[in-house]
Amino acid sequence: MTFTISSSDKHFLEALALSNEASFDALFTRYYGGLLRYAKTLLPYPTDAAEDVVADLFCAVWNTRTQLTVQGSLASYLYAAVKHRSYDNLRQQRRAPREMPDDLPLTQPEASYLQPDQLLDYQELSQHLLALIERLPERTRQVFQLHRDGGLTYEEIAALLDISINSIKTHMFRALRFLKDALSVSDGR
Amino acid sequence: LHPEESYLLITRYLARQTSSDENAQLAAWVAESPEHERTFEQLKALWQASPTPE
Predict the structure, then answer these.
(1) Span A33-68, pLDDT tens digits
(2) Is pTM beyond 0.80 here?
(3) Distances (CA, A) of A22 to A18, A27, A29, A96, A131
(4) Residues of B12-48 as b/e, b for ≥16 C-beta within 10 angstroms?
(5) ipTM above 0.95, yes or no
(6) What is the distance in angstroms between the Cα of B42 and the nearest Cα belonging to chain A?
(7) pLDDT over threshold 50, residue A178
(8) Is A135 on the interface with B (CB under 8 A)?
(9) Is B49–A125 a contact, with Cβ atoms under 8 angstroms apart?
């Protein structure tokens, strides 16, 4: 599947090829969080493997900035690169004996339980939503985050995860219905 | 629009992936009823809550 590259992506890559550090910073700011969340869904927790994979990718992007050829959107290029690097990382881990983590994994703070008449302010909504997103089935969560946080289109997500566009729609609808209903209940409406 | 179509149209709109025809279709749908408007506001709230990479 191929996608046409958007003009904003093209300007980005041209500026990057000219060693424009500001455009690299902008690239990092725009994609780091979403790519890291995606890598964490592919790599076992708790390790720093996801952080390593994403950091290595940004290093590689900078080091190869003059020869970078991107077919399709920049977002789908970066997400596909994280996927391939994560699979490489998993293959290496299977060959090397796994180290046991020293500490127990940190758990997410519990979602705050809200009184029905309490209005959610923005921060509470975010925190509550984060806890709800964690409860989505893994594939559904992945699709939701790639679309919302990664800004990928259905076509790009379908190519990345190798599932049909209809499946993407089903996952998205389930995620939205679940999150919307859960938020409506806690909002007392 | 069925609920599924409307939910997906709203979020594709929020992700800025809709055409101008689809935007017009969505605007008409939202204007149809207070219920539709509330659905739009609820989905917008959950779409825009952090974390978003910006």
Answers:
(1) 889 988 988 887 667 889 999 999 998 888 888 888
(2) no
(3) 11, 9, 10, 38, 34
(4) bbbbebbeeeeeebbeebbeeeeebeebbebbebbbe
(5) no
(6) 7
(7) yes
(8) no
(9) yes
